[in-house]
Write a structure and sequence with these properties.
With 126 residues, this protein is an all-alpha fold. Helices cover 50% and strands 0% of the residues. The radius of gyration is 15 Å and the shape is globular. The chain is built from six helices and no strands.
Length: 126
Amino acid sequence: MNHGTGLNIPGAGLGKWKSPLWGCFDDIGSCLITWFFPCWTMGKVAESVGEDCLIYGILGMVPIVYGYFRHVIREKVAFRSGIKEEVWESLLISYFLPLCGNLQERTQNNVQVVCGSTDDIKITRK
């Protein structure tokens, strides 16, 4: 529960996704990395919830079973953020929209998949 503190307590079901499922093009760099190397983003998101980056990156590429492992990570991200998502929703997203779902989870956990960012660039005029 929230108890008026403004904080999301894991598993309370009061949180919301920071970006919509279709917001996968909001960060074009991460979108391209995820499109060409989905195992990289999956591994980094898994790592952000305490799982092994390499193992989940590889499992996320295995035909047929990839959706289940995507679902496991998605549930952990949702739980930690206090988001209530039905199991069937998570499974549908994990099997049929894995890239959009993966990017949504990446945004939720503030996982950086692109080395460096435009926020780090500072231009100084002399």
